[in-house]
Amino acid sequence: MNKLELTGEVVQVDELRYTPAGIPLLSFVLQHLSDQIEAGMKRKIECDVSVIAMDKVAEQARGIKVGTALKVSGFLAKRSLKSTQLVLHINTIEKII
Predict the structure, then answer these.
(1) Could you tell me if residue 73 is inside a domain?
(2) Which candidate, 25, 43, 26, places its Cα nearest to that of 34?
(3) Is residue 47 part of a domain?
(4) Is the separation of the CB atoms in 44 and 67 below 8 Å?
(5) Is 84 left (phi over 0), alpha (psi -120 to 50) or beta?
(6) Residue 22's Cα: distance from chain center in Å?
(7) pLDDT at position 97
(8) pLDDT at position 72, please?
């Protein structure tokens, strides 16, 4: 199974663009900060995750700004065929107030 749910703050947003097929695509970076328990010990987690929203989700995310808190869910995939870098492709997006 390949499913990821993540909360965080938007730290970078690219301009909305369109694929050659005309599908809207929005890329942004989500910064996640939390405390997790690993091996019985508390661990501080800090990471920046590259995110891609496409089609209706990209339209829904249009207008998000740096500093916006979000909860997203989706799946991980390679950035491109030749890349090993992972990107979170989101299926759902929700602003956290």
Answers:
(1) no
(2) 43
(3) no
(4) no
(5) alpha
(6) 21
(7) 81
(8) 98
